[in-house]
Amino acid sequence: MSKLHPVIERVTDRVIERSRPGRRAYLELMEIEGERHRDRNTALPCSNLAHGFAAAGEDAESIATRRGPNIGIISAYNDTISAHQPYGAYPPQMKIYAREVGATAQVAGATPAMCDGVTQGADGMELSLFSRDVIALAASVGLSHAMYDSVAMLGICDKIVPGLLIGGLRYGWLPTIFIPSGPMPSGIANKEKQKVRQLYAEGKATRAELLESESKSYHSPGTCTFYGTANSNQMMMEMMGLHMPGAAFVTPDSGLRKQLTRAAVHRLAAITRDGDDYRPLAHCVDEKAIINAAIGLLATGGSTNHAIHIPAFARAAGVQIDWGDIAEMSKVVPLLCRVYPNGSGDVNHFHAAGGMGFVIRELLDAGLAHRDIMTVGGGDLSAYAQEPWLDGEKVAWRDVGPSGDAEMLRPASEPFQSEGGMRLVEGNLGRACFKTSAVQPERWTIEAPCRVFDDQAQVAKAFAAGELDKDVIVVVRFQGPRANGMPELHKLTPPLGVLQDRGYKVALVTDGRMSGASGKVPAAIHVSPEALGDSGGNWGPLAYLRDGDIVRLSAEDGTLSTTADLSSRQPAAAPKPAQGMGRELFGMFRANADEAEKGGSAMLAMAGL
Ligand SMILES: O=C(O)[C@H](O)[C@@H](O)[C@H](O)[C@H](O)COP(=O)(O)O
Predict the structure, then answer these.
(1) DSSP three-state, residue 562
(2) What is the pTM of this model?
(3) Is the previous residue joined to 529 through a cis bond, with omega within 30 degrees of 0?
(4) Residue with CA nearest ligand 1 atom 8
(5) What ipTM, to 2 d.p.?
(6) What confidence tens digit (pLDDT) does each residue in 69-102 have?
(7) Domains within the chain, CATH numbers bracketed
(8) 433 CA to middle of ligand 1, Å?
């Protein structure tokens, strides 16, 4: 068995040490809660219990007499978001699978699920990050019925998995499995789609041509096929051992998908407190599992959104991890994958080439991931270094061979880069993330005069007027959690991509987010502290920048700085919080949110986590 890399060991020890009081308090609470709910039927008075099974039909008696485990399903189903559309059919099917092993299943609750693709560049995007916390709250409400012995989480997309995980972790005495439904089949190549978008941005393609190309990309139920936030979530659930092994990227209507879901339900009946293989979520998600999630992100060049979500869900488990920890590991975790936007193939091609089983085997063999974590699949993370297949009617697992496509997936001994896909940049403009995996190394350093904007629409206008046809660092500020909920600014990619292709040195600096689908243009994102002042009147450095200031952004030497003297300036006036599209209702989330590096969450901050 390979020895753990000393840097991974050092970072893990540091995270364990830093988290000691929080982790202890969390585990103590979970232990007390688990004991209190050990026998849910005596814990719940009869009238309460009867309310809970009144509509359970043929399962009512079993629930009433506690004949077998009762699985709570938290579903983020809706049929507008393509990845979640298949979930509509899941609960009735899951109830049948539960009965096969003497268990029952009930839908404990539903959560919202928003699609960042639908809301990209639109007002609704300002609710997106906070929707993660709404989902955590909604999951918590569902589980508060206290009727369950284990939990099935039905959620895939960007904020949904982190939100479900945060909610689930507060019920961490319950064993919990995430059940994905898989990617849609590949449509038009993602690079083709981007090309048409750039042509449209330049006025060289019509709206009809653009819509035709987009509909060839987004064309059926299932997760979008680029390696963005949703698919990075799936990767993380594998790295943390919270899926059935290898469930991430099996297409929605395949027989294998069905059998994986069936196996997950059977497993949920087997790993409860009453059995002899108890696997509570609180013990599965420990410091090592959280470190594994970050390592997976680095090794695969995953979504930058997880630089925000990992610290957030870690807090829900009593663990503190920050960008310094992730950046230190990035120096030794090699980049093993090139999936669009970091390459040209999509997640279906990635899966066919060996997928997550290959990545996990390589990381484990090179001592770059923690093997000794408690997983839901059984045993430790070794089970996830395999791939599922159909042996007759049943799912079985087998070893993964060599990479089926060296342009997309490489062994740890011959990686695409000797380091991971993300770097920390910092200086007198703050601290930010730079996703290196999608950017050509010759663009890792950009130094140029900046143009400062207070929203993305102003950038589009300046681009259309030709004002950005030069070497420029585009600063988009007042996009942090407190200012406007920290939207993704992915709509900036086509115009900035056009400028880059015209031969200019371009970069983006923002306290907002980019999408997991963003790439190509160098960007310092999630700049912390954000520009908008906090309750103590401390404004972030971006609030003091002016047009023409020289800004240096370098992933090579880890810099984000300006030569301008900001000390004698007043901060710029911040735009007023926007109204409409429900944004006014989210005032309390904005007012109390903490910095992106901590997860950008009012809910966690106010909970004292
Ligand atoms: O973080 C993400 O992964 C994105 O938010 C993603 O959820 C969204 O759908 C993209 O905006 C679409 O990306 P394309 O530009 O590839 O269509």
Answers:
(1) strand
(2) 0.97
(3) yes
(4) 117
(5) 0.95
(6) 999 999 999 999 999 999 999 999 999 999 999 9
(7) 7-52+69-185+220-398 (no CATH), 191-217 (no CATH), 422-575 (3.50.30.80)
(8) 18
